[in-house]
Amino acid sequence: MTSRLPAVGTSIFTRMTALANSVNALNLAQGFPGFEPDPVLAERLAYHASHGKNQYSPAAGVPELRHQLALKYGYHADTEITVTCGASEALFSAIASVVSPGDEVIIIEPAYDLYLPAVQLQGGIPVFVRMKYPDFTIDWQEVQDRITARTRLILLNSPHNPTGKVLTAADISALEQIVLQHPGLFVVSDEVYEHILFDGHQHLSLSQSPVLRERTFICNSFAKTYHITGWKTGYCLAPENLTRELRKIHQYITFCTFTPAQYALADYLESTNSHQVLSEFYSRKRDLFLSTLDTAVFRPLPSEGTFFQNLSYAHLCQRPDTEVSVVLTEKAGVASIPTSVFYSDATDHHILRFCFAKDDETLLAAAQRLNQASRFLG
Ligand SMILES: Cc1ncc(COP(=O)(O)O)c(C=O)c1O
User: Fold this and answer.
1) Which CATH architecture has domain 41-271?
2) What are phi and psi of 257, to 5 degrees?
3) At 274, is the pLDDT very low, low, confident or very high (cuts 50, 70, 90)?
């Protein structure tokens, strides 16, 4: 049988986690939190699972949750908000809503691994624009230059996985100019790390720009905000005409996501603002990891948001990052993700991505092990 995705194998996240488990290494590879959600939220889930909220929800999501999201984001609960099976499904459905075979889609690289296959499955043609190394800024002139009559969509992610970069006001206004010049162009904005920002950086949601809001699918998730990646509950915010198309696809991909979680999250959003402490929580973890790390051995790149810290070893050796990440896992006992996997052509800047959403003990032990690890890189 001919594969629709011939280049896709088992993801690096699965492989590195399996390797970390097999050699008993500290797993700073896959991006999931190493701690439990708030017991209040867990209690609400248990409550709704034992009080009759176990059947299909409305396809758009339970009204209580959409109401809470409407209050938080200023979108209309009935016509502009759709609860999805994680941000993954929101992204997939949004891409499928606008991309037809032969349409070009601008993907900013390095890029989260879902974007490319989701575009390809619609018959879309990826057009890659790279963030400028070493600052990972977006060259908007280049984006503009790559737009043709067939360009249908731009995919953006801020705070950005894997670089930790955050879009600035200048980025937003450059994007506005582009969108204004191209009436048939849409935007998918992946904002799953919206509440994890450091050193005074602010999250500028595309939903805050009247120009962009009209053309943008905001894809988001509760996964990273509430330490519940396994609940797979996310949402898409989009104006009514885009939401109408998205829901056509959503209803046949999943119809709805896990009902008790939707009710639990509705209660939780109503009763707390726990997301407000997230930046401080993760900023402390990032600083703990970095303060223990010998930065002469692995050189940290700036992390403005997300729970990822990139470390460069380019000054130590030029071995491929895919090889170095395996060596560090097996010999030093710390698993990471080689950032070349986030590029379509495997561009290798000799940078590894470490997830610091782990308990303090794990972060301290990982940094100490990395401090001794240069001997494995010769
Ligand atoms: C940038 C980005 N987008 C989307 C997702 C997927 O989110 P969810 O687990 O809610 O599907 C992730 C998860 O790692 C991510 O890092």
Assistant:
1) 3-Layer(aba) Sandwich (3.40)
2) -105, 180
3) confident
